[in-house]
Amino acid sequence: xxxxxxxxxxxxxxxxxxxxCGLKSRFEAFCGATWVAQATIIEKNEDRGxxxxxxxxxxxxxxxxxxxxxxxxxxxESSRTPGDCGVVDLEVGKTYLLAGDGANIIxxxxxLAFSQSTRPLEWKNAPKWLFWTLxxxxxxC
Length: 141
What we know:
Blueprint: H1 2-17, H2 26-32, E1 35-47, E2 52-64, E3 73-79, E4 95-100, E5 121-122, H3 129-140
Antiparallel strand pairs: 1-2, 1-4, 2-3, 4-5
């Protein structure tokens, strides 16, 4: 009985403390981000002591906030836990459309998601119209 109560409490507590992004359009997410870029993950390291994931990414096309040369590696950090809105499931070798803040930190919420998921969009799954839209979007913010 105590075990069942503990399990129920854990599930309810996790649900209450989970990351919530609210309803934002892709345009609001784009305008709210400091930077938006095409990035290929080349390295992923978990820093358990600091509860962080440290990625290194090769930056391709920069759509917003570009002070870095295309093709230059960039360190990116995120929380290690989804409950803190951390982006934990980027895979080495895959290319994503990422949005972040000025400190090169990414979270689930400002990502330009194309479904109910808030995980970053994998580049190969991006709709064709997106490329043109992104190149014009910073003018509208």
